[in-house]
Amino acid sequence: MVVRALVVACLAACAQRVPAPTGDRCADLRRLAVPHVTIDSARVVPADEYTPPAHPAYCRVDAIAHPTADSNIRFEVAIPVGDAWTGRYQQIGNGGFAGLVPEDDLVQAVALGNAAAGTDDGHASTRAVDASFAVGHPERVIDFGYRAVHETHDAALAIIEAYAGRAPQHRYFTGCSDGGREGLMEAQRFPADFDGIVAGAPANYTTRLLSSFAWNANALEATPGSYISSQQLRAIEDAALAACGGKDGVIDDPRACHFDPSVLRCTGAPDDHCLTDAQLVALAKIYAGMPGYYGLTPGSEAEDGAWAVWITGSAPGAAGHAVARRFGATFFRYLVHGDPHFELRDVHFDRDVAAAEQKLGAILDASSPDLSAFARRGGKLIQWHGWSDPAIPARASIAYHDAVARRGDPSAFYRLFLVPGMLHCEGGRGPSDVPTLDAIEAWVEHGRAPAELVVKNTTRSWTLRPY
């Protein structure tokens, strides 16, 4: 902690060495000295009252951090001008394998009056499923795993203090999917970075999650007859809702659901309303999950943005096949084997999953249940997960919470909320939004722990209580 304090002090001190001002404090930041950071541009973005989200004028800084010779961490800092700043700092997480600065989310944070920052995680790509950056660049894998978010935090605070003349009063991190993983990674590795963290649907056990994508793909492609078409998903969902009493198409707690897919077994010629024995085997594997990980919950298979996007795709092996399959393929090709020709059918789950974890677990997995340092310094953590998530099983969040709880009751600093009917980070028949930012601010700034979260869609509301 002493070394950490000296580093932060150095950053703040170095950031004050600004040449003679030009009269434009934002433009002056182009000549700001921050260790191993190059500031490419600094300019004021005018206020916009008409294009949602309406936002105040803000100083936008685009920069690159080079903590190693092979690092190229692009990041952006946005600071509301004058009295528009609330004094809060909000850092935004990424999705997938990142590759882009989350600019739209930064503007939304500025619209709330927050100074904000986000990073591309150390590599450039327009495709979130692309992990080709990893081949021959082990430092960039580390940047993606945890270093880019931390470097962005340190540099952003130095830039904000140089511009505003004061440090943020409160520091928050918000993210979903890989952004949720990043939030948990920060709490585990860098517990002093943030006062409050919101981790939505976290991909925190990354090596097992991405291996499970290969498991699901191989289940659907095990035999020529195993594949479940997107047209059959409606019959599966309807049967699950009938078995589990889903109200308004939502199963509020899938743990109480005991759905037997064999009720869909074809008794005549196969069609879109029944499943063959080979398809039932594949479906059972997807619900059960890869050994050592977790399966998906029933009840939202046919939802827009659910299994047809993530699990089954348009056709087995087709270019428009499932998003999860593409994530699994790029993971094993580039991160695990470094072979762009590696195929998912060649994954041997009895050895490749362990090999992936041994090679990458310490870098990518935010699975440590030890949050004691984060708790000691007063940090607060809200984790949330949609029960109908077709990408990252909600049970993975429960498992992480249970692991933390085995070390002692974490409710004084950590709460998990499970959201009925919500898909991956958003969408589905459940609530359209989860008010976690308001909740974490109230907890950090006023000591009001979230005893419940009230969420709703257009026809129904739910009162969520901590798991």
Describe the protein's architecture and organization.
The protein is an alpha/beta fold. The chain folds into two domains: 2-206 and 372-464, Alpha/Beta hydrolase fold, catalytic domain (Rossmann fold, 3-Layer(aba) Sandwich); 208-362, no CATH class. Helices cover 35% and strands 15% of the residues. The chain is built from 14 helices and eleven strands. The chain has helices spanning 2-15, 25-28, 103-111, 138-164, 178-189, 206-220, 233-244, 277-288, 307-310, 323-336, 352-364, 372-376, 394-405, 436-446, and strands spanning 37-45, 58-65, 73-80, 88-92, 115-119, 170-176, 196-200, 380-386, 414-419, 453-456, 461-464. A nine-stranded mixed β-sheet has the order 1-2-3-5-4-6-7-8-9, sandwiched between helices. The chain has a two-stranded antiparallel ribbon with strand order 10-11. Helix 5 (178-189) links the parallel strand 6 and strand 7 (196-200). The protein is globular. Residues 1-23 have low confidence and may be disordered.
C-alpha Rg, in Å? 23 Å
Distance between the termini: 32 Å
Largest sheet: 9 strands, mixed
Write down the secondary-structure element order: HHEEEEHEHEHEHHHHHHHEHEHEE
Just name the CATH architecture of the largest domain.
Answer: 3-Layer(aba) Sandwich
| Assembly context of the chains | single chain
- The number of helices is 14
Mean pLDDT, as a whole number? 93
Number of domains: 2
**CATH homologous superfamily title of the largest domain:** Alpha/Beta hydrolase fold, catalytic domain
How much helix is in the residues? 25-40%
CATH class of the largest domain: Alpha Beta
CATH-derived topology of the largest domain: Rossmann fold
Q: Largest sheet, order of strands side by side?
A: 1-2-3-5-4-6-7-8-9
- Specify the overall morphology: globular
**Unreliable spans:** 1-23
Range of strand content: 5-15%
- Structural class by sheet pairing and helices: alpha/beta
The tally of strands reads 11
